[in-house]
Design goal:
The chain is α/β, with parallel strands linked by helices. The chain has three domains: 74 residues; 179 residues, Rossmann fold (3-Layer(aba) Sandwich); 59 residues, Orthogonal Bundle (Arc Repressor Mutant, subunit A), CATH 1.10.10. 44% of the residues lie in helices and 13% in strands. It has 16 helices and twelve strands. α8 crosses α9 and α10 crosses α11. The protein is elongated and about 80 Å long.
Length: 365
């Protein structure tokens, strides 16, 4: 049996248990010899438990690989394996890479994507977090950066939507089969991604979303990207698992700082403390990754104060006088320093102000 059919069959039998596949290849010496010789040598395969052996034998005896492929064709699902040239190079060299990926969408070769950022964060994002996510996803998309995330509610969904709304390319990595919409409320978004981006999973078609699937799939989210941007996460958030994978894969980790009183900022602030890049503007990402920005606007800075809230107006008016540090701004505006941080971050991300060395803020030229 050829290598692709072998991997489809094994994946449908035991799921993405890469260590078993690796051991089988080592034992038989050739992936194409596994299925034809499995039953004869199964007693020697002590690295596979009896339950998984039974599943594999059942599939071998039924030999329903053609039926599986027929179902995938009917559902417009493609398969790419580690042995195919279309397999993403960025994923190929991570630890525990997936041997097989199921894809559904309009991208046939993931290697055509040169710039890719994963955006992850809380499922219970604050209004501030939602705004930050929309801002970054939009601006990155306008700079031809692919946005990868996990289709979950919250930050994931916002990142995908903002990307699509700005005619960008987005990839959703699922913790279930690519033919299974999860969560169900994201059915419309799932369909939009298929039209303009790509749905990816290592789990067999028809697989349900299981809790333990999601942490496992996070290594693919980070693996496909050049860097991971974390927007709002508690200190116990599953988002931090993606950041951990990114660190292990030598990917850049970017984190948006947040209010020290917010539990959804504990994770991002913790990452910054551990060495993640403080990220308050798109240039923080573009410069760190040495990406050329061909779409920087030369429009005159818009200082129309009507679009700002009361505190933001006070800050802008104050900084028109000259650069100020946060203590001076707090004293002049009578706003607590911890409340100023989010306002200063918003103004900095909008390109209105910038932070100088010495922690002074000024109106951006």
């Amino acid at each position: 049996m050829n290598y692709k059919d072998t991997l489809i069959l094994l994946n449908n039998g035991i799921g993405p248990k890469n260590i078993i596949i690796e051991n089988l290849i080592d034992y038989f010496g050739n992936i194409e010899d596994i299925i034809d010789n499995f039953i004869e040598y199964e007693k020697d395969l002590d690295f596979i438990n009896d339950k998984d052996k039974s599943k594999i034998k059942s599939l071998i005896n039924n030999r329903n690989i053609n039926e599986m492929k027929k179902t995938m064709r009917k559902k417009n699902i493609n398969v790419v394996t580690i042995f195919d040239k279309e397999y993403p190079v960025k994923l190929k060299y991570i630890e525990n890479f997936p041997y097989i990926l199921y894809t559904k969408g309009n991208i046939k070769d993931l290697n055509i994507i040169s710039k890719n950022i994963s955006i992850v964060g809380s499922r219970k994002a604050t209004n501030y977090g939602k705004w930050v996510c929309e801002k970054f996803s939009k601006d990155l998309s306008l700079r031809d950066v692919c946005i990868t995330s996990g289709l979950a509610i919250g930050i994931d969904s916002i990142a995908h939507k903002a990307c699509l709304e700005n005619n960008g390319t987005t990839i959703a990595v699922l913790g279930c089969g690519v033919d299974n919409v999860y969560p169900k409320r994201n059915k419309r978004l799932y369909e939009d991604i298929i039209k303009k981006g790509l749905i990816v999973s290592e789990f067999p078609i028809g697989s349900n979303a299981m809790p333990y699937n999601f942490p496992y799939r996070n290594r693919i989210i980070s693996g496909l990207s050049d860097g991971v941007l974390v927007i709002e996460a508690s200190d116990k958030s599953g988002t931090l698992i993606t950041a951990t994978y990114a660190a292990e894969q030598n990917k850049e980790i970017f984190a948006v700082p947040g209010n020290i009183d917010s539990y959804l900022s504990k994770g991002t602030n913790q990452l910054i403390g551990e060495g993640a890049k403080i990220t308050t503007r798109i240039d923080d990402i573009m410069e760190e990754l040495n990406w050329q920005d061909n779409k920087i606007s030369n429009k005159k800075l818009d200082l129309n104060l009507d679009k700002f809230d009361k505190i933001e107006k006070e800050i802008v008016e104050l900084l028109k006088e000259g650069s100020k540090n946060i203590i001076e701004i707090s004293e002049k505006t009578s706003v607590k320093q911890q409340d100023l941080l989010s306002k200063l971050t918003i103004l900095e991300m909008q390109g209105i102000i910038s932070q100088e060395k010495g922690k002074n803020f000024r109106i951006k030229n």
